[in-house]
Design brief:
It is found in: Cell outer membrane. InterPro entries: Beta-barrel_TonB_sf (IPR036942), OMP_b-brl_3 (IPR041700), TonB-dep_rcpt-like (IPR039426). There is one protein chain. With 751 residues, this protein is mainly β. Strand 17 and strand 18 form a beta hairpin. The protein is globular, with a radius of gyration of 26 Å.
């Protein structure tokens, strides 16, 4: 079900200022806590720094809640984080990329109390030393330094109510004794993700409409365990294990489909109806091991860092898709078509990274490193299609097997030079060189023309980076950054599987998708460490997205409109934005405000009429539309008493309508309220999201050919969550280090 309803991910990922990946693209490892104090927002070299230490505002919150209230960060779907003007946000801990897949990370961020964070760094244009793709930005969470040996931890329990009820609980522990540090976390949760859809497509003469609900039950169990041992005063060795299990049985899609025909003068001619009833059982496992060695080579901070990692991802998905037509009692009791799909995916990855940072006395730093990734994905898909006559009797069975194996090797090296010329001027220049070699083999015995195919893709990419930061005086700062990146397709995007939604509506993945290129520029001005202006421009070449293609098909003498969402490269795209922001406290810190307002301009340039996987020709879809939209975000925390124990939160965002790949995305907004009480080591909080129930996605597209397409997706984001957090033990226990995993760059592409 998560793969079938890919629209929600495509929708949210297209909102540049706000938030979605599908993401595809948030990740995490070991996050233990957070605290906030005087809220200071300032520009440092290549990043924005939000100082949240010592403020009681964070107490009792989750890490995810705190990140949503950080300047430049936002979330429109309460599932993914986005940096203003960027595609995705990658989570780092103490300068190291986290080590968990996207779905697992979201759950962990929402279950982790926010009491041990010193500051949050927002890197809008990462340097060459970072392994990021496309226009991704980085959120680096810097933990507070703690001083003594001992044991500490926290427990969190929460209950959420929107359309359905959900609950979760987590336990985090830290132990430090002399040279050994052990940290761990375990999380469990259960919920039902609910959605409703209205889908319409067609022409003035014939149209399809599908209306109904999707319910996706989820049970999660996961966590991490980290052992870190100090070998000498200058060297450390660590082993980290991350694990996550998700079970999603009896996911359901129930849609009523109506086909309507009209005369040339627009008058109604005839209609017929059927129902789509889809049931799916799915579960996945994600396990990874990372071995880390770190050697400090001098007193200035120079060091060598080596990682070796193994990642195993296993997902199993079985679905039963049925089309029912009216029987003698008009009760949709007759089976017309059934398609069963068995879609397993197994991913194995071996990775290694070597990084060396040399610091010199004259404020000059040189960073040199390399990485290697070897990945194999195995997708053995089995489909069976069953056709039935008008009496509901089986008349034909058609098997469709496709065994797709994808092998990929990535080699990368980078060099970054950073220099502080004076107290006012600093600069950074660097480059990455990446070699990608991949081979996809598709074994499809039903394809008589090409039963066995090989798709080879090889890339050599030179990716430069440049930035400078100039402090004009104590009140004014200006900076500029340029970077070029590439975005490789996720492994599930390459698997040539068709996911059925209705008899005439499906999504199609594509093994021929090639990597896209992105060029990012950003100019920033900051005043008094409280007010800022950010100008951003991103150019995307061969953008990877879903394209809605339509065509007319005839079945049993009746004309229908077929709608297919094809995953492919779709032309070029430009995004330009200008944003004004403020981060300030008022009335002796009784009110803390984070306010952003901006304008975004999108230029789309794509044309498609053929499914690259099947060769089927559709009506030409053209998206060469420009749009300009406004974005507003305001996060406010109000202290209600002198003792700093009661807090009220009022958060609001508004995203104006804008043109995306699927069409015109209508405006979105949400008002969220929260009340929190701190009492000794306990925190009680109540959060109400989407109070006005205005965070509902609507997309509309009209083509010059007369084709139209409309999507309305309600994910029932209005809800209420009550949580209790208890902190125990020696709160000064520190971890030895936080360790980056070698396989982190691969994890974002598993889902």
């Amino acid at each position: 079900m998560k793969k079938i309803i890919i629209l929600a991910a495509a929708i949210s990922g297209s909102i540049v200022f706000a938030q979605e990946k599908k993401s595809d693209t948030v990740k995490a490892k070991s996050i233990e806590g957070i605290t906030l104090t005087k809220q200071v927002f300032k520009k440092q070299s290549d990043r924005f720094v939000y100082d949240v230490a010592a403020s009681p505002v964070a107490k009792g919150n989750t890490t995810f809640d705190l990140l949503k209230q950080t300047p430049l960060l936002s979330s429109t779907d309460d599932k993914t984080l986005k940096i203003a003007g960027k595609n995705n946000a990658l989570i780092y801990i103490n300068g190291r990329k986290t080590n968990m897949d996207a779905e697992s990370l979201v759950q962990l961020l929402k279950s982790t109390p926010a009491e041990n964070i010193q500051k949050i760094e927002v890197i809008t244009v990462p340097g060459s030393e970072y392994q990021v793709e496309s226009s991704d930005g980085i959120i680096n969470i810097v933990m507070k330094k703690k001083l003594s040996d001992g044991l500490n931890g926290n427990m969190r329990m929460s209950n959420m109510q929107n359309k359905f009820n959900g609950s979760s609980a987590s336990l985090s522990l830290n132990y430090r004794k002399d040279k050994l540090g052990i940290s761990g976390n375990i999380f469990t949760g259960e919920n039902i993700q609910a959605q409703s859809y209205v889908l319409r497509n067609g022409t003035s003469l014939i149209s399809n409409e599908s209306v109904g609900d999707i319910n996706d039950p989820n049970k999660n169990l996961g966590g991490y365990l980290n052992f870190d041992y100090q070998l000498t005063d200058n060297s450390n060795l660590a082993l980290t294990w991350n694990s996550w299990y998700n079970k999603s049985n009896d996911s359901t899609v129930d849609l009523l489909n109506t086909l309507s025909n009209y005369n040339a003068d627009g008058s109604f001619k005839s209609s017929e109806q059927n129902k789509s009833q889809n049931r799916e059982d799915a579960h996945y496992y994600n396990n990874s091991l990372n071995l880390n060695y770190e050697l400090k080579t001098d007193s200035l901070g120079s060091k060598l860092n080596v990682n070796a990692a193994y990642l195993n991802y296993r997902r199993f998905q079985f679905s039963d898709n049925r089309t029912l037509v009216p029987g003698t009692l008009n009760d949709f009791s007759l089976l017309r078509q059934k398609i069963t799909q068995d879609i397993p995916q197994v991913i194995n990855n071996f990775s290694g990274t070597v990084d060396y940072i040399q610091k010199f006395k004259n404020d000059f730093t040189a960073s040199l490193g390399g990485n290697f990734n070897k990945t194999k994905t195995d997708n053995d898909t089995k489909n069976y299609s069953y056709s039935y006559n008008g009496n509901g009797n089986l008349i034909a069975t058609k098997p469709d097997f496709n065994h797709f194996i994808y092998d990929e090797s990535i080699y990368g090296v980078y060099l970054t030079l950073e220099k502080k010329f004076s107290d006012k001027l600093s600069g950074k220049v660097g480059a990455r060189y990446e070699i990608t070699k991949s081979l996809g083999t598709s074994d499809n015995p039903q394809n008589t023309e090409a039963p066995y195919q090989e798709i080879e893709r090889n890339y050599n990419n030179f990716l430069p980076y440049l930035s400078f930061n100039y402090t004009i005086n104590d009140k004014n700062n200006i900076s500029y950054a340029f970077s070029s990146r590439m975005r490789r397709p996720s492994f599930w995007e390459l698997n040539p599987v068709k996911n059925i939604l209705t008899q005439d509506n499906y999504t199609q993945n594509n093994p021929f998708v090639k990597s896209s290129s992105t060029y990012n520029q950003e100019l920033t001005y900051m005043f008094k460490s409280s007010y800022f202006l950010i100008l951003n421009h991103s150019y995307f070449k061969d953008i990877i997205t879903q394209v809605p293609l339509q065509r007319e098909i005839v079945r049993d003498g009746v004309a229908y409109r077929q709608l297919a969402y094809i995953r492919t490269n779709f032309g070029d795209k430009q995004e330009m934005s200008a944003m004004l922001g403020m981060q300030k406290t008022f009335f002796k810190q009784y009110l803390t405000t984070n306010f952003n307002i901006g304008v975004q301009h999108n230029i789309n340039n794509g044309t498609l009429n053929t499914d690259p996987t099947t060769g089927q020709v559709f009506d030409t879809y053209i998206n060469k539309t420009k749009s300009t939209s406004m974005v507003i975000q305001s996060n406010n925390t109000i202290r209600l008493d002198k003792k700093k124990t009661w807090f009220l939160g009022v958060n609001y965002f508004y995203v104006d309508k804008q043109q995306i790949e699927l069409g015109m995305l209508k405006n979105l907004m949400s008002l969220d309220l929260s009340i929190k009480k701190n009492w000794n080591d306990w925190t009680f909080s109540l959060n109400v999201t989407d109070v006005l129930r205005t965070n509902v996605v609507e997309i509309e597209d009209y083509q010059s050919s007369g084709n139209y397409n409309y999507v309305k997706n309600d994910q029932f984001r209005r809800g209420m969550t009550f949580s209790i957090v208890y902190n125990f033990g020696n709160q000064k226990v520190k971890k030895v280090r936080d360790i980056e995993g070698a396989s982190d760059a691969i994890k974002s592409r598993t889902r």
